[in-house]
Design goal:
It is a single chain. The chain is mostly helical and about 290 residues long. It folds into 2 domains: about 1-85, DNA polymerase, domain 1, CATH 1.10.150; about 115-290, hpI Integrase, Chain A. The protein is built from 13 helices and 3 strands. The chain has helices at about 1-15, 20-40, 50-60, 65-85, 115-120, 130-145, 145-150, 180-195, 215-230, 240-250, 255-265, 270, 275-290; strands spanning about 160, 165-170, 170-175. Helix 6 packs across helix 10 and helix 10 (about 240-250) packs across helix 13 (about 275-290).
Length: about 290
């Protein structure tokens, strides 16, 4: 089975062009299922039928796994069996007609305009780290890119003269404009700070850690949590919070969904439409709070 899972990994990366994070998530779900099968049955994954797989998902639910986790695992395992069927290893996909209770879709949490300003004001441009952190936060809110895309950026992906960045996600590439404050923060970091931070003159990474190497997801996570605390913002801020806030604030100020979809890199506009629901919810909240007869 290890060879088949490796083949599927190659298929996801090189044929489907899925991101490294997506692939890692799929494989984790598949290997957890493989461990369950090895512990409970004599056969391997190729011999599992619909009834046994249904029991697996029921076991996940009964053990307290969230609907979101079970739904994601179902999608991962269904995709794997679909691959095995297309490659001729099995005749039918036993997961095809299995359904689980779908996870309730929660609207993402966003920051208010004042909270964004407060967060962006936290990095003090008095040392190398402050300049770098200011540039990262401004860039994240200016473009709405994912944290994986942020840390993957290279210096050549930034064009300050025409004020945009080039962002790649898998095989897809998009160009996103920058507002003036983000341009100024990036200009100061790239021209004055980054040369003093990189460990290797040939380093291509735009953002580097204090060792002069490419910033990691974990490193940036710690940075944003630190500034949440120093800003005294009670909301749980993650790198994705700025992405959600970017989209919702654009929509509130009149941007169309299609343009936001393009900037976010969503392949399906249904993923972008959640921000329309979010804006409507916020408007209703404001109405109920301030209308004298609400």
């Amino acid at each position: 089975m290890a060879d088949l899972i490796a083949l599927y990994e190659d298929h996801l990366l090189n044929i489907k062009r899925a991101s490294a994070n997506t692939v890692a998530s799929y494989l984790r779900d598949i290997r957890q299922f493989q461990q369950y099968v090895a512990h409970n049955y004599d056969g391997d994954l190729l011999e599992m039928d619909k009834d046994r797989i249904t029991v697996y998902f029921a076991t996940m639910t009964n053990s307290g796994k969230s609907p979101a986790t079970v739904t994601r695992s179902l999608a991962s395992i269904k995709g794997f069996y679909g691959f095995l069927q297309s490659e001729g290893y099995i005749k039918q996909n036993p997961v095809l007609s299995i359904h689980v209770v779908k996870a309730e879709k929660k609207l993402p949490q966003i920051l208010t305009g004042k909270e964004v300003e407060l967060l962006l004001d936290q990095p003090k441009q008095t040392d190398l780290k402050g300049y770098r952190d200011k540039a990262m936060l401004e860039l994240l809110y200016a473009t709405g890119i994912r944290v994986s895309e942020l840390i993957a950026l290279n210096v050549d992906d930034v064009n300050l003269s025409v004020e945009f960045i080039r962002c790649s996600s898998g095989a897809k590439q998009r160009v996103i404009p920058l507002y003036p404050a983000a341009v100024r923060a990036l200009e100061a970091y790239i021209n004055e700070v980054r040369p003093n931070m990189i460990a290797d003159p040939n380093e291509t990474a735009l953002f580097v850690n204090l060792y002069g190497e490419r910033m990691s997801r974990q490193g940036f996570w710690k940075i944003i949590k630190h500034y949440q605390q120093t800003a005294g913002i009670e909301k749980d801020i993650t790198p994705h919070t700025l992405r959600h806030s970017f989209a919702a604030h654009l929509l509130e100020n009149g941007a169309d969904l299609k343009s936001i979809q393009e900037m976010l890199g969503h392949s399906d506009i249904s993923s972008t439409q959640i921000y329309a629901q979010l804006v409507k919810q916020n408007l209703k909240s404001v109405y109920n709070k301030f209308h004298p007869k609400a």
